[in-house]
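User: I'm putting together a teaching handout on how sequence relates to shape, and I'd like one worked example. Could you take CPL domain-containing protein from Paramecium octaurelia, show the sequence you're using, and then write out its predicted structure as tokens right after it?

Assistant: Happy to. First the sequence, then the structure tokens directly below it.
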Amino acid sequence: MGKKRIVEENQNEEPEELQEVKAKADNKKQKKIAKNQNKISKDVDFISFLKEDIRFLIQHRNQENEQKQQKAEEVFTKIEGILYQIAQTKIGGRTIQLVIKCADQNVRQQMFSKLLNDKQFGELLQSKYGHYIGITMVRNMVPEFRNQFFEILFKNANHYVAQGDASIVLDRFLTREATTQQVNKVKALFQNHSEKIDNLAMKIIEKGIHNHLLSLQILKVALPNLVPEERQKVIEYFQQLENLDYLRHKDGVSIFCAILNVTDKKERKNFLKNIQTYMQQSQEHLHRNSQFYLALQKVIFTYDDTKQVNKSILQDILPEWLNSIHVFKIIQSIYQPKLRDDIKFDTIGLQNTVSLKDDEIRIKELQDYCFESILNSLQSSETSILLESNINQFICYFISYIIKYTQVQAVDFIKAQIKQLLYFKVDTIFSRDVEQNGNYWILTQPEAQRIAKCLIQQQLIAQGEFSDIINNYCLKIQSILISNLKVTLISKAIYLLLALIENTNLKDQVLVEIKKNKKWIDKLEKTQSLQILYKYI
């Protein structure tokens, strides 16, 4: 029995190695407790040391008075020698923030100098309480220290970008204080895909700091190369309704475009549903924000289900197309292909798409949906489209759509434009020479000439009733231009003459009339437009 008991005791006894590990862990735990107690003791001492001063600054921090500044200077004098001893404690960090906020410019400069010129500043920004000091410095930036602050951030950017506390300071500086050159300099560190980018992206996803400026940049670059599980986490985060505020700025729209390019039909449908809700809850983002409309354009030209796009987006925004510049740009991009091909859109991924539907079919479906609403608003608008440059350009593309697809509902609209072009007179806007030639807008007004030329270019395309209307219009334009040939040849109206020659069946008739006047035409200054005409005569 005795031997058996001894064996059992030996079996229950822990190995020496395990006992040693446990002892070290317990010792470490005791040291941590002692350290925290010591820290608490220091905080208590610090609070009692500056209790009244801190209370005063808290009460007056949002007021403008000299007494507050004097008190801040007194506090700075007491703590300037122990800044880094107290900076990483809660009350100490708070006190430094109060001094920065409440002090006058002279004391603030001294505080910035003390903090920035200490080699520990870079580490301070990574601490729980120290990073709040960095945020306060950004909010109350002293201009002469801006570049020094930036250089510290830039030097540590690779580490800060995925470090929770420091990443906030870095983001605040880049979005509030940095120059365009400084932002671009930091962004350049994360422009090209690499293993480092993938690792940073994983940390960003893990820590949930997706919305920072550099986080958006890194995630955009890494997105196509992330493993499916991690990519899905990014998609799920950015499609959530409560996170859609990132669509307010360009970098947010950029990551949005990148995400749509790697999503499937179901995921894009979820995006569309949440964007519709977001629009309904936050109408001001559409009408006041210069970037949100780009996100909507990306959806419109990416999502294959145009009926759902019409229902979810266009239906809500169409009534505002003449009142909101951003809605107007969306509608403009549907009818004007050149806007969709603009190189500036390519930088945020608007040209890239995973859509399976033919682009021409999609555009036609979108144009058809918008057509009736646009037509009605133009016909009821009190603003003359001949006077509005942007709308005037849009009208030319809208007319081209009407004639190309023979939209007979617009016959009266086309007739109204022609009548306005041929007979509109306002004596105050014409010179005396032009008044003697009939006050025709098409002879002197570039905005009228743009629409006039567009209508001429439709002659060979127009069908049915539109064919008769455009033919008669071209004959009248020919008569006006030839009757006022001198004015025509020395003004922009010469391009209407060239349009008749190049885009209609009236070429021979026009050239016959011009050649009759060749002698005096030869005496005119050889402008670029006149040299083009000479190729025909």
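A couple of points you could highlight for students: The CA atoms of residues 305 and 406 lie 25 Å apart. The two ends are 129 Å apart (CA to CA).
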